[in-house]
Amino acid sequence: MRKRFLEGTPMIIERLVVGPIEANCYIVGDEKTKQGMVIDPGDDAEDIIQAIGRLGLKISFVVLTHGHFDHVSATAAVRKATGAKLAVHQADAASLNDGMLARLAGFIHQPVPHPDILLKGWEELSVGELRFTVLSVPGHTPGGIALYGQDAVFTGDTLFEGSIGRTDLPGGDYDVIIESINTRLLALDNEIKVYPGHGDPTTIGFERDHNPFLVNPPRKQC
After folding, report:
1. Per residue in 178-197, pLDDT tens?
2. Bridge partners for 23 per DSSP
3. Cα gap 130→138, rounded to integer Å
4. Is the pTM of this model over 0.90?
5. Among 86, 140, 147, 166, which has the minimal tally of Cβ within 10 Å of its Cβ?
């Protein structure tokens, strides 16, 4: 499944819904320079690689918003095919090859290469003439990140349309994810488009006004 957004702008965004858990993988590119990055290559490596070729992009970075298997399983194949640098937050790097969560969910762990770039937050990633700021948003995992730039934010499993990331898995913390959303994501303008790790795009303003976890947050996640 593929969808295109922001048609007619200098930025290409293509979403591929990959794997049995239907995670979103995003291919982002600068239409002028044809430089690009892949965010969360969770599965279906051949589909991702074919889409990169069809878009005519040279991939500079593969960026993982967090280390869960449904967002990283095609990382090795995509990195090998593109020669891109692999970037992940330092707090999730050690768990990339743990494999426990994949096994608990009934899947085979796919090894992830050693990262080239260990992120801490507030770095700037340049993709051609596009600029993206790394926002540290722990809570779903200790090293969760969002990528903000060009009137868009890629939130991984931190913020969804009408929901937030689950915090009952190892390393999750409900109070921390709410703080991350409030201090990092809701600090952005209402018009910023949100591209989550699962489900459809939304906006910061819509989530600020309608997301039940943000409008009337429960004391803890049920």
Report:
1. 999 999 999 999 999 999 99
2. 18
3. 25
4. yes
5. 166
Cα Rg, the chain, nearest whole Å? 16
Q: Among residues 124, 13, 18, 131, which one has the least CA distance to residue 78?
A: 18
Q: What band does 34 get if pLDDT is binned at 50, 70 and 90?
A: very high
CA–CA gap between residue 93 and residue 112 (Å, rounded):
10
Distance, CA of 21 to CA of 64 (rounded, Å): 16
Angle at 45 between CA 40 and CA 48, to 5 degrees: 70
φ and ψ of 202, to 5 deg: -145, -160
Q: What is the pLDDT of residue 25?
A: 98
Q: For residue 41, give the DSSP letter.
A: -
pLDDT digit string, tens, across residues 55-73: 999 999 999 999 999 999 9
Which residue type occupies 14?
A: E
Residue type, position 220, single letter: K
Q: Rounded distance, CA 174 to CA 195, Å? A: 21
Total count of residues recorded for the chain: 222
Q: Sorting pLDDT into bands at 50, 70 and 90, what band is 220?
A: low
